[in-house]
Amino acid sequence: MAKAKNAGEAQRLADIPNIGPAMVADFRNLGIEQPGQLAGKDPYALYERLCSVTGVRHDPCVIDTFISAVRFMEGAPPRPWWHYTAERKRHLTTARR
To answer: Which of 17, 15, 91 lies closest to 47, judged by CA?
Structure first.
């Protein structure tokens, strides 16, 4: 299945680049059922909530994927999730200070 090229084409969560069945399930655990619900969300808060809801500390790369999905739904071009790894590392380093 082809992924959406822009936010307007994303009809289902799985249409968003980098989002597969496991991430769709994670979003649903957070009460997110439609792609448009991601716009304006804080990817770091989504991650913390996911860890709380599931009782598991997820791999930090999940944050990268959340960032990519939120940004895509806010109008950014599709980018691989790892494009956001350096940003996540900077953010978490700054947040811990």
So the answer is: 91
- Output the tens digit of pLDDT for each of the chain's 97 residues: 689 999 999 999 999 999 999 999 999 999 999 999 999 999 999 999 999 999 999 999 999 999 999 999 999 999 999 999 999 999 999 987 7
Domain ranges of the chain: 7-96
C-alpha torsion angle, residues 57, 24, 30, 70 (rounded to 10): 90
What are the tokens at 61? 């790369």
Fold of 7-96: DNA polymerase; domain 1 (1.10.150)
pTM over 0.85: yes
Cα 75 to Cα 4, 10, 39, 80, 97: the distances in Å are 12, 11, 9, 15, 31
